[in-house]
Amino acid sequence: YRDFTAIILSNSVWRDSVAGIPYDKRLLLLPKCLRNQDKCPGHFDELGLVCEHCGSCVIDEFKAQAERLGYAVLIAEGSPVVMALIETGKIEAVVGVSCTSVLERVFPYMEAGAVPGIAIPLLYDGCVNTHVDVDWVWEAIYQSTDTRDGRLNLDDLRNSVEEWFTRESLESLLASDKGQTEELAFEWMAKAGKRWRPFLAACAYQALNPNKSDALLDTIRRASVAIECFHKASLIHDDIEDNDTTRYEAKTLHTEYGVPVALNIGDFLLGEGYRLLAELKVPDALRVAVVQTAAEGHRTLCLGQGAELSWTRRPGPLSVAEVINIYRKKTSPAFEVALKIGAILGKGGDELTQSLERYSWALGIAYQIRDDVEDFYAKGTFKVPGEIRPSLLLAQAYEMAYGEDKTLLESIWNTSVPLHSIADKLEKVFEKLGIEQLALDLMESYKYRAINSLALIKNAGLKGLLRRVAGKIFNEFEVMGCCNDHKAGHGRSRESSD
Q1: E strands present in 184-327
Q2: What's the pLDDT at 488?
Q3: Residue 94, class by beta-carbon neighbours within 10 Å (0-12 exposed, 13-18 middle, 19+ buried)?
């Protein structure tokens, strides 16, 4: 780990220097082995790989967004080309991605030109099964004076958000009648949950206020709790509408206390959420914008849920596009409301609206697709949900199937057969058509759309943070495979040392 340790120390020493250099004075140096060897349509010239932006590997995304920022981008191993670029005087900093041996060869050129740099080593040496920590690369690319002091530790921020939902913290914000309704509401709010929506609001707020040591102010805490009130109320109502009996590995609220009590608690939480927003101690214009944003999101979410409820009254096959539209209305608004409220309170300006909308709807759809996959595949084992509802996997299968398979899927869509009775047959249909992988591929495409929508955001801190948040939400350690360059005939012949 000696070389790796040296790289970490060097990055720490030079980070502030790189952060102070404009993007258009920086070089992004990428290894050509990050390309997808089987699908890459790019070709090589004397400078390295000429990317055709096919989207089949992470190089496309790195190169496109870095160039939008102003970077010069070179896809090649360390070579005198780096020195030539430095000698032009146009390059004053380098962000380099490669194996440690190549980074070592590039360093003398940087040293000779007195150019600072940040290095991201591949996770394994060699050109076989090589990987890179994508989030680390994005963090380095977006490094600037706007982000160096306020660079968020997402785990620490997540822990802070969790603390807002302890019983004591909630009691300091919510009403204090101490009746059964309030007690049950406190208990429901404190139950385990992913807290993605309040987390997103806090992220957006702090990214827009990077130099404030007290970024987690009472204002954003109140707004984030309000956002979770809306979410927890929607879960109560969803569970009633979907006739679900368990959530958080326990009985749903209406199963334990009855539908009337559960409905009332959901309505109480909606009221508390709007009260918290209406009482925010911010300028009137910001308060109105926050409440309006929440109301618009609430309305869109109800329309999405309404579309699903209408289907349950008249079940039948849905197309992939129809299911995606339900997801867009049912799930995406919650992400959008959280991000917009955080941005409004962080005084991000109106120019963020369109990018946040695109990011939210794509992220929400990807999130819902993942949940849909997990409804059928739990811990690698196929299962069927208790009740049929609009499902992307079923829609994909129905559009692709024919003959007896088509008839089977149509009977499932029409809810004319119990799912548990045909689980084995459905699993075989899904396996034959490759439905699980198709759904995961579609999820990845929407995640890519979410990331791509960040290109027009001017605030580098917010842009980099939302890129990292996407990975956090999907609990992924993003890596990209490295091609076997010596077999492809490019670069030096070298065996993998992983």
Answers
A1: 246-247, 250-251
A2: 34
A3: buried
**DSSP three-state, residue 26:** strand
Going 325 to 330 to 331 to 337, the CA torsion angle's sign is positive
Q: Which two tokens stand for residue 389?
A: 């509802």
Could you tell me the two tokens for 314?
A: 């008249």
Among the listed residues 109, 106, 70, the one whose alpha carbon sits nearest the alpha carbon of residue 87? 109
CA-to-CA distance for 145 and 307, rounded, in angstroms?
47
Cβ burial 155-167 (10 Å sphere, 16+ → b, else e): eebbebbeebbee
Rounded to whole angstroms, the Cα distance separating 121 from 104 reads: 10
The CB density around residue 483, as the number of other CB atoms within 10 Å, is 23
Q: CA geometry: angle at 186 spanning 181 and 188, to 5°?
A: 95
Q: What is the DSSP string of 102-153?
A: HHHHHHHHHHHTT--EEEEE-SSSSSSS----HHHHHHHHT--TTTTTT---
Residue 113, pLDDT > 70, answer: no
pLDDT in tens, 306-361: 888 888 888 889 999 999 999 888 888 888 999 999 999 988 777 788 888 889 99
pLDDT tens per residue, range 426-457: 889 999 999 999 999 999 889 888 888 887 78
Region 83-96 average pLDDT: 78
pLDDT tens sequence across 190-218: 887 778 889 989 888 888 876 554 545 78
Q: How many other β-carbons are positioned within 10 Å of the β-carbon of residue 187?
A: 13
Model confidence pLDDT, tens digit, residues 298-318:
999 899 888 888 888 888 899
Give me the torsion for CA of 142, 147, 149, 152, rounded to 10°.
-90
- What is the distance between the alpha carbons of residues 316 and 308, in angstroms, rounded to a whole number? 12
Tokens 């579609």 belong to: 442
Whole-angstrom Cα distance, residue 35 to residue 352? 32
Report the C-alpha gap between 197 and 225 in whole angstroms.
9
CA dihedral 64, 451, 142, 51 (to 10 degrees): -20
Residue 335, CB-side half-sphere exposure with 13 Å CA sphere = 26
Cα separation, 450 vs 469, in Å, equals 11
Give the separation between CA 145 and CA 120, rounded to whole angstroms: 20
Q: What is the pLDDT of residues 16-55, one digit of tens each?
A: 889 889 998 898 988 877 766 666 776 766 566 676 666 6
* Banded pLDDT at 489 (limits 50, 70, 90): very low
How long, in residues, is the chain?
A: 498
Which residue is listed with tokens 């109480």? Answer: 268
How high is the pLDDT of residue 81? 66
Q: In the prediction, which pLDDT does 480 show? A: 32
Distance from C-alpha of 129 to C-alpha of 496, rounded to nearest angstrom: 8
